[in-house]
Amino acid sequence: MTLPEKMCAMVTMGHGDLDQIVFRKDWPVPQPAQGEVLVKVGACGMNNTDVNTRTGWYSRAVTQATSGAGHEKIDADDPSWGGAPIGFPRIQGADVCGRIVAVGPGVDPGRIGERVITDNWLRDEADPNNKEKTGYFGSERDGGYAEFTTMPSRNALAVNSPLSDAELATFSCSYSTAEGMLSRAHVTGQDVVLVPGASGGVGGALVQLAKRRGARVIALASEAKHASVAALGADVILPRAPEDLHATLGDERVSVVADVVGGPNWASLLDCLARGGRYTCSGAIAGPMVELDLRTLYLRDLTFTGSTVIDLDVMGTLVRYIEAGAIKPALAATFPLEELHMAQRAFIAKEHTGNIVVCP
Fold first, then answer.
1. Which of 78, 200, 223, 325 could form an S-S bond across to 83 if both were Cys, CB 3.0 to 4.6 Å?
2. Is residue 186 over pLDDT 90?
């Protein structure tokens, strides 16, 4: 195809409110460098990292729950997920589905035409397992809220699926985050997994992927979303924040809590873990500041794991699941790219089940 010189893009100009994201019709089409590919974006999924990076929520100076508003006080040294500044202007958006339309030096031209989704983790080619040498697509480099984007060839994963671009754009962040958490917690078919926030993108992925491992899944979600969470395969669905979670669970013996919520109900999650249980965390959308009675941790023989940078094999495993139809997308809504502000408002409101996607 003949490539244009300019493209439409939603460009984030700095930390702050939604007005920091500007729609541009004259942004230069990027050129693939050595080892890179140029992808024509078909769809790009939304995730909490987009919002948290824009608002500066990752800064330790911020103690409140995730929201779409910019924070008055952030530390200039640690406003991103990696605890370091990022460069602006920046095109955000990590979860791309599209087709390779050009390749840079060192990349097989035979890749042109491939349909791909992103492996969002940018790694040091010489030291890929070093978590200190990682970046995130749409954060440390421009992402997919545009008509075209470049990425390292190894981050463009070929996928063969009848799913639409919008459906495929729901997988990269949410499902890799969920699979990373379950892997870090060593979840098996012997486990009972409790999933707070089960109607969200990561929560719904946790339900599906834990079930795929054979685990029994107990989901927490607002009652209006119970039917859609049931469709994902949860064995038991409880209210989002029961007054007494331990009593509500009854005889259920929870061995794993897979949490991206945190917030004021956090202690109740630990209280329901059986002795020797595992708590794994990859988010804190309801608030990062929680209280821990250390006696709960050591007297109950609990194991805590944080999960951010996923293992190298996670995305390849997910592609195999997608191609086999073993997991399904949870597409809540699609928006045109130029309506990214509206899409983020809907995402932040959390009235949906699953993932929201924008399409150029």
1. 78
2. yes
